[in-house]
């Protein structure tokens, strides 16, 4: 086999791995996100008149928790996945196992330290809202467990084994949602209790779910222990890496992951701590009204768009170890091909998802949140759906930079975007109200994404001609999906119904018609074959598309 044929074979194999890995991670992430959104319907009904206040408190607590969690995890899982893939590519599986054990020590230590800081320092992070203290106390318990669980997921991902991560993620979310709904019902409906207590139990569900996810990973590890032992026994065993060097490698790779992984959360925290003060300057608003507005743009819409953003997140997790292997081999052509594939796969799933959600924003909002402030809430959800394309793109490009060990440069570009967000935040919130933070986020992330993509193009070359040609096809099919779903939504809206059942039917019909149109178009034009490979030919035959 020639060197060129070998390169093409490696590229095809990498693409197949990316597609297979993305399928597992996307399935796990999507089902988890759907579970994390569906619970909202009964949860909001049981909270009654307190649901917007409860959502705002829940969202504020989770934003702070997410930042502390990323600090506790310290990027170690992604760093472990990247370094394990690196040593596996060198057939040094013994070093990979030692790396995992050293990472586990770091994860346990940081988990304990960060959980203690969050628990005892809770009054410092409330921003004047005393209701946040019990919520932060309940969330700190999850930080004791999740670093170990996330690190083990990273270890499996380094071996290109995505199923354990995906399944544990789903089980974690399932247990969390069951606990949330049980406690919300008992406290709010059976005991007629306090809504702050109910929110605190809903957030404590994160720890309960994490225990379930960790147990699933433990079962998978025990089942595959002999497989790992065989790989270690057949390693080259030529590398002797001291423990101190392993610690340095983990930390050097992990620290930038903290900043990049917390990127969206950092932007949300900027909104959380600046929105109310700026709005108080703009007019005489009550704290309750501003909490309601924050719930609409900062919590409610976010929960739904994160379903589509999770598609990009799943792709990002899959790309890092694959890119790391190509980078270790020094194969620029393979790196360029994987970058091109990553962008196309992102567009393939993100564009129709985001545009489709925007098209059904009104009935979708009523299904989950009811008719309260329906017009404003629907408009915010539609705008957030468009914005989710940039949020998802940031997730992917940050992962691409990490995969090629360009963490520091990616952090610098994110810092530039954050400064831009700060600069435009005040005037945009002052004049645009609840839409201001969303526009400011879009501008800041656009700057960061542009800088990263430009850097990748300069170093490795991105095949823009190939991307542009296929993007046109994706965009045309996605716009057709949007138009059909929007038309069905408008026709259904003529009934003027605020019933959840009627709006559920409208959303389902719009999603099925629009979704089938997209699938038909990408299969008929063979666009799906170009992006996902020849395996989609079977789907075309089953759907009788020629």
Helix fraction bin: over 70%
Strand content: under 5%
Give the N-to-C terminal Cα separation. Answer: 35 Å
**Can you count the beta strands?**
0
Q: What is the count of helical runs?
A: 20
Order of helices and strands: HHHHHHHHHHHHHHHHHHHH
Output mean pLDDT: 84
- Main beta sheet strand tally, sense and closure: none
Low-confidence residue ranges = 1-15
Radius of gyration: 23 Å
User: Given the C-alpha coordinates, what overall shape results?
Assistant: globular
Structural class: mainly alpha
Question: Can you characterise this structure?
Answer:
It is built from 20 helices and no strands. The longest helix has 43 residues, at 287-329. With 546 residues, it is mainly α. The relative contact order is 0.11.
Which features characterize this protein?
546 residues; mainly alpha; 20 helices
Write a compact overview of the structure shown:
The chain is mainly α and 546 residues long. Helices cover 86% and strands 0% of the residues.
Q: How are the elements arranged and paired?
A:
Blueprint: H1 3-38, H2 40-47, H3 51-73, H4 76-89, H5 93-120, H6 132-158, H7 163-190, H8 195-233, H9 243-261, H10 263-282, H11 287-329, H12 332-359, H13 361-369, H14 374-403, H15 407-432, H16 436-460, H17 464-493, H18 500-524, H19 527-532, H20 537-542
């Amino acid at each position: 086999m020639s060197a060129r044929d070998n390169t093409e074979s490696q590229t095809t194999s990498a693409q197949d791995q990316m597609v297979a890995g993305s399928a597992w991670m996307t399935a796990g992430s999507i089902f988890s996100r759907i579970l994390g959104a569906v619970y909202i319907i009964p949860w909001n009904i049981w909270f009654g008149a307190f649901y917007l206040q409860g959502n705002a408190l829940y969202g504020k607590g989770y934003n702070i928790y997410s930042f502390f969690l990323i600090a506790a995890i310290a990027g170690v899982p992604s760093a472990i996945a990247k370094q394990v893939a690196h040593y596996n590519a060198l057939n040094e599986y013994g070093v990979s196992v030692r790396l995992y054990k050293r990472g586990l020590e770091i994860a346990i230590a940081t988990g304990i330290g960060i959980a203690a800081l969050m628990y005892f320092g809770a009054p410092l992070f409330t921003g004047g809202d005393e209701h946040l203290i019990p919520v932060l106390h309940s969330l700190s318990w999850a930080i004791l467990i999740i670093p170990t669980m996330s690190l083990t997921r990273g270890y499996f991902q380094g071996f290109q084994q995505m199923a354990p991560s995906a399944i544990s993620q789903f089980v974690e979310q399932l247990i969390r949602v069951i606990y949330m709904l049980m406690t919300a019902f008992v406290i709010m409906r059976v005991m007629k209790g306090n809504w702050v207590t109910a929110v605190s139990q809903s957030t404590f569900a994160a720890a309960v779910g994490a225990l379930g996810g960790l147990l699933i990973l433990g079962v998978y590890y025990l089942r595959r222990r002999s497989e790992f032992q065989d790989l270690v026994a057949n390693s080259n065993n030529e590398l002797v890496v001291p423990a101190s060097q392993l610690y340095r490698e983990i930390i050097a790779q992990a620290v930038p992951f903290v900043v990049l992984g917390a990127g969206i959360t950092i932007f949300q925290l900027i909104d959380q701590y600046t929105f109310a003060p700026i709005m108080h300057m703009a007019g005489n608003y009550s704290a309750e009204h501003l909490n309601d507005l924050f719930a609409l743009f900062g919590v409610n819409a976010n929960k739904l768009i994160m379903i589509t953003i999770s598609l990009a997140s799943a792709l990002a997790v899959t790309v890092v170890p694959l890119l790391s292997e190509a980078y270790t081999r020094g194969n620029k052509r393979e790196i360029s091909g994987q970058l091109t594939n990553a962008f196309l796969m992102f567009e393939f799933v993100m564009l129709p998802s985001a545009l489709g959600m925007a098209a059904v924003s009104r009935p979708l909002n009523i299904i989950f949140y009811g008719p309260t402030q329906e017009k404003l809430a629907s408009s915010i959800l539609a705008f957030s759906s468009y914005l989710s394309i940039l949020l998802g793109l940031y997730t992917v490009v940050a992962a691409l930079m990490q995969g090629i060990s360009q963490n520091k440069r990616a952090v610098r570009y994110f810092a530039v975007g954050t400064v831009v967000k700060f600069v435009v935040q005040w005037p945009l919130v002052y004049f645009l109200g609840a839409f201001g933070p969303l526009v400011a986020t879009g501008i800041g992330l656009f700057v960061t994404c542009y800088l990263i993509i430009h850097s990748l193009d300069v170093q490795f070359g991105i095949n823009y001609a190939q991307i542009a040609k296929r993007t046109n096809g994706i965009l045309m099919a996605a716009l057709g999906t949007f138009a059909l779903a929007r038309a069905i939504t408008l026709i259904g809206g003529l009934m003027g119904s605020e019933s959840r059942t009627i709006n559920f039917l409208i959303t389902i019909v719009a999603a099925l018609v629009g979704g089938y149109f997209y699938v038909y178009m990408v299969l008929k034009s063979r666009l799906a074959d170009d992006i996902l490979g020849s395996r989609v030919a079977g789907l075309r035959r089953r759907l009788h598309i020629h």
